[in-house]
Amino acid sequence: MDQFTFTIDGQTITAEDGMSIMDAALANDIYIPYLCHHPDLEPVGACRLCGVEVDGRPMVMSCMTPAKEGTDVRTNSPAIYQARKVAMELLIMDHDMDCLACEAADDCDLLKVSAYLGIQPEQLEGLRPLGRQLPIDDSNPYFQFDPNKCILCGICVRTCNEIVGLGALGYINRGIETVVGTFGDKGFVDSICESCGECVVRCPVGSLAPKKPQLAAREISTICAYCGVGCGIHFGVRGDEIVSTRADRESPANRGSLCVKGRYGFNFINHPDRLTTPLIKKDGQFVESSWEEAITLVADKLSNYHGEEFAALTSAKCTNEDNYVVQKFTRAVMGTNTIDHCARL
Amino acid sequence: MTNSIAEIDDAGTIFVIGSNTTSAHPVIGQRMRRAARNGATIIVANPKEIDLVRSASYFIQHKPGSDVALLMGMARYIIENDLHDKEFIAERCENFEAFEESLAPFTPEFVEEITGVSWEEIGQVARIYATNQPASIFYAMGITQHTHGTDNVMATANLAMLTGSVGKPSTGVNPLRGQNNVQGACDLGGLPNVYPGYQKVEDPAMKEKFEKAWGRELSGKNGLTHTEIFDAIHDGTVKALYMVGENPALTEADAKHAQKALDKVDFLVSQEIFLSESAEYADVVFPAASFAEKEGTFTNTERRVQRVRRVIPPRGNSKPDWWIVTQIAQAMGEKGFGYETPDDVMDEINAVTPIYGGITYERVEEIGLQWPCPDADHPGTKYLHKGEFARGKGHFVPLVYKPSAEITDEEYPLILTTDRSLYHFHSTMTRRDYGLEALDSEELVKIHPTDAETLGVESGDWVEVSSRRGTVKARAQVTEICQPGLCSMTFHFFESPTNEITNPALDPIAKIPETKVAAVRVKKVS
C-alpha cells in the first residue's frame, strides 16, 4: 500500500492510501474528539465533534475526509473549539448526569470528550432540556437499553447492519423526538434481535449496557465450547469466577464477533447442579465417594469385560487430548473399536 | 470444511442447503450476511423459511427429503445449458459419463414433482451457482440426517466438481460441523472404523502401526456406531458402556430405545459436568472439569486446531476427562497411560497422526493451525484439494432418488423435522443459563397456518405430536416458516423430548439416523 506524508498541528505524519484524517491521527496517537466514529464501521460524520481545518479552509469532519499528501491539518483553533463546544452541549444537555450509577462509568466516551472540551454543568444551565423520561427496555435478560442516555451516535444501528448484517435497530420519530428502537418500537426480545450484544459492546455511553457488569481482574484466552465455529474468547476473571467475556479480534474464526451463547451463555459453569465429587450407585441411590474408591471400583469392574462386550461414547464437547485418551483406552485396554460420539446427532 | 471461514468474505455465491446457519453457527451466519451486504449472492434451499432467507437473493423451499432430486436437477440444468466446467472435469475428475447418464430420470417434470419447486426456479439458482463464481456450498445436518444422507453429500460434491467449484479459494463443499470439537473427536479416532487421523482399523498396516505404538494387540474389526451400540445392548452383546459427556437419553433418535438400553446395560460409567438424564442411569459418575477448567485443544469446523486454556480452577473435586481415563487405565495395571499433562498427549498425537504431525502447543499458541499439517515446518492447509483431490481424481457418483424411510399416510399425515434454537445447544449446558433459558424457555411445535386451521390449533395451544414410536406434548406456534404439511421441533427440552418420536432408521453407509423426516400426527389437547 502506498504511503505518503502530511502534517497534523505541525507534526509530520505518515499515512497509507485510503486512510481518513482521523484514522491517520489515531494511528499516530493524536487525539481528535469523536462519539460516532468506530473503527469497525463506515464513517457517518453524525456527531460533528471531529472537525478539523485543512490548509486553512473551514472545518471538515476528519472521520469522513481522506488524508491527502502534503496537506496541513489543524485539530484545534478558536473556531473549531467553539463548534465542538456547541455540538457537545447539545449532545449532553439531555443526558443523565449520575455517572457513578452508570455501567459505562469506567469507559465512557461522553465523559472523555466532555473532559477534553472542559464542559462544566454551569454551561448547560442556559439550555432547555426536553425534560422527558423515556421507559428503559430491560426485556433482554443480559442487557438493557436506556434511551435517556442515548446520544444518537448510531453506532448500535450501524453495528447491527454492518457487523451483524441483521438490521434489528433503526431510528424512530423525527427531529428532537428521534430515538433508537426496534421495528414497531417493541422490546428487544420481541424483535428480530438475536441478543448477540455486538451493539452493547460498542455503545460509547452506557445507553446499551450489560445488566450485571463486573470488571475483570485479569483475562485468559480460550475457545468457545458451543458450536463448531470455534470463536476465540477472552474470559475476564475475578478471583476464581468468570465475570466477563470479550471476543478475540485476532481469531481467524470470529474476528471480534460473538453470538448470544458465546458472549453471555456461560452461567452454567458455576451452576449449583455441577457435579463436584464422584458418585457410586448403591441400592439405587447415588452416594458420594472418594476418587480412589470410584477409580478402583471402575477398574475392577471393567476388568470383567473385553472386546465386543465393551462400548465407549466419547465426546465432541471434550478436547482433542481427552478424545485421544478415551479411544486409546477403548482400543488398547478394552480390545474393541466400538467407540463413537454424537457426530451423527 | 474444504475451505476456510474467512473465505466466505470473497465468495460470489453462497449456496446454503440444509443448514439453519444463523441459529446453529451464528458467527458464520453473521459473516454470510455481511458478505451479502458486500455483494455476494446467497441462495438458501431449505424446507423452512429460515432467518437467513431475509439476506438471501434466492430461496428454494423444497420438500423435506428431496435434496437429491433438487441437486441432480440443478446438475442436469447446468449440463443442458452448457454451464459446466469441462476443462476441470476432464483434467481433475473421473466417472463423469456414468454420472451424466444417471441424470436421465431427473426430468424437469420428475424434479418438480419430488421437490415441489418449479423447474424455472431450479434453473435460475443452478445458473447463478454455475456462473457467479467463486461459488461455495454450505451444509449441515439438514443434508446428512437422512436415510440417504450419504447420497445428499455426494450430490453436493457432484455439483461442486461439475462447476469446478472446489480446490480454489472461496469455493468448496463446506459441512458446518456442529459441536465445538466434533471435528477433533473425529480426527482423533472417536469413530469405530478409524484410528486417529482417519487411518482405517481394517487396514492391516495401520493396525500394525498402532500395535507397535501402543504395545498391545488390537482388533482389526470395525466397531459399532452410536445407534448400533444401543441395539447391541438390547441384544446382549454390549454389557458395559462408558459415556464421556454424552446424553443419548435426550439426543438419540428414538430416545426411548436408548433409555431402555441405558437401564439394561450391566455396567454404566458416566463422566459428566451435570447429572444429565443419561448419567442418572449410571453405576458410577465421575465429575468432569468443564472446558473453562482445563488445558487442551479443540479443532473447529475449518480444521483449525486451537488452544483451550484453563481459565478457572475445576469446580469442587472435578477433574479433566483425560486424567480420569488415565487413572482407570493405570489402576488396571496398564502401561502407556503415564501422561502428566495434555501436552504429553499431544506429543503422542503428533507421533501417530500424520495430519496432526506438526501441530504442537507452541505453534497453536496464537491463532491455531489448520490440518493437514504433517510436520513442524508445514504452515497448515487453508483449503483442501488444491491442484489435485486428496484421493487423486474427483470421483463423480451416479445417484438415484430414494424417498425418506417414512412418508405420510392417513394415520400420520404430517412430516416432522428437527432443528436447533439459537439460544440452546443440545441440552445440558444452556438449560442451566438463566438468560438463555429466559430467551427460549420451552419447546414450540412450529406448524403452518393451513394445517393449524385444519386441526383447530392456535399459537399457544397444547398439542400432542405422535409418531409410530411415541407421543410428546408441547405448545404450538402457528407460523408460515414451515411449508404446509411440515411441522418442526427442536430437541433441547427434556419436558418435551422430541427424539422419543424421531425416526432411528439409518443411512446404510454413514449410519446416521433420519431425524429430519418422520411421519407424525398432531392433535390439540384441551
Could you explain the architecture of this structure?
The complex is a heterodimer of chains A (345) and B (526). The two termini of chain A are 48 Å apart. Chain A has helices at residues 21-27, 78-92, 109-117, 155-163, 198-202, 260-264, 291-302, 320-333, and strands spanning 3-8, 11-16, 51-54, 60-61, 72-74, 143-145, 169-172, 179-182, 208-210, 218-223, 232-238, 241-247, 279-282, 285-288, 310-313, 339-340. Chain A folds into four domains: 3-85, Ubiquitin-like (UB roll) (Roll), CATH 3.10.20.740; 127-210, Alpha-Beta Plaits (2-Layer Sandwich), CATH 3.30.70.20; 218-270, Single Sheet (N-terminal domain of TfIIb), CATH 2.20.25.90; 280-344, no CATH class. In chain A, 22% of the residues lie in helices and 20% in strands. In chain A, strand 7 (169-172) and strand 8 (179-182) form a beta hairpin. Chain A has a five-stranded mixed β-sheet, sandwiched between helices. A three-stranded antiparallel β-sheet of chain A has the order 10-11-12. A two-stranded antiparallel sheet of chain A has the order 6-9. Chain A contains eight helices and 16 strands. With 526 residues, chain B is α/β, with parallel strands linked by helices. Helices cover 30% and strands 18% of the residues of chain B. In chain B, the strands form seven sheets. Chain B has a six-stranded mixed β-barrel with strand order 16-20-17-19-18-23. In chain B, helix 3 crosses helix 7 (119-131) and helix 12 (226-234) packs across helix 14. The termini of chain B are far apart. The model of chain B has no long low-confidence stretch (mean pLDDT 96). The chains are: A alpha+beta (345), B alpha/beta (526). At the A-B interface, helix 4, strand 10, strand 11, helix 6 and strand 13 of A face helix 2, helix 10, helix 12, strand 9 and strand 10 of B.
